[in-house]
Amino acid sequence: MSLSDTTPPDVAAQHSASRGQLWTEFLALFIGVPVLMAVFFEFIQANRLLFAAVWALAGVAAFLLWRTPGWSFRKLLAGPVLSEWRLVLAFSLLTGVTCTAFVFAINPDLFLIFPRFRPELWIFVIIAYPLLSAWPQEVIYRSLFFERYSSLFPGHWALIIANGAVFGFGHLFYMNWITISMTAVGGAVMGWAYLRHRSMPLAWLLHAIAGNVVFTMGLGQFFYSGAVN
To answer: What pLDDT shows up at residue 14?
Structure first.
């Protein structure tokens, strides 16, 4: 699974937008918006606007993708998934082990606390999270990031590191180093997976697995906006 197998980041170089315009868009979306969400999070949380904000940003991302030459909405469903079962399995196992280790290091009583004490709500989250949260985030942080802004970074590794960094920064409003660091590392892995085949479904599946493992193993309090003080 080497980077030599991935598609070169050449899509962004094709569009007519100037480099300055692309940087303006990039900084506004991936730096400015997370800062604003962190500053006004009390208001967002009080009015239960987090999902609305995420989906609104996904709408902006879809609009910008639509304006990107060479891109079509069919690409949101294109790319292999089943052929990457080894990657999916390895990612699932590594995520499970990492989350379990974190739980036992922080508070062993949290292990499997969600499915043990709230099984009905846990099942709802397992079903809803991939659709309501993971999917719009992938539109923003994988499809838009790589298809429109690839030309801003010098090569695959710079792209992957930047993608992980902005994904972690996008969770700034949690104000928790565990959340930000875990999402940064996870985002880099998802970005690498996306670049292998330009596969949105593959990146989305990894994101869904990561989120569901986090909630299942006992780290949900670090990724649940209602727990933010």
So the answer is: 47
- Of the candidates 226, 207, 46, 211, the one whose C-alpha atom is nearest the C-alpha of residue 122 is 211
Amino acid symbol at 184: A
Contact assessment for residue 166 and residue 149, using Cβ atoms and an 8 Å cutoff: no
Domain extents for the chain?
Answer: 3-227
Q: Position of tokens 């979306």?
A: 29
198 φ/ψ sector (left φ>0, alpha ψ -120 to 50, else beta):
left
Cα–chain-centroid distance for residue 109? 28
Residues of the chain falling short of pLDDT 70: 1-16, 225-229
Report the pLDDT value the prediction gives residue 12, as an integer from 0 to 100: 41
Q: What is the pTM of this model?
A: 0.91
CA 41, 143, 185, 201 dihedral sign is positive
Which two tokens mark 65?
């993708």
Residue 203 CA, chain-centre distance (Å), reads: 8
Let me know: does 204 contact 193? Beta carbons within 8 Å.
no
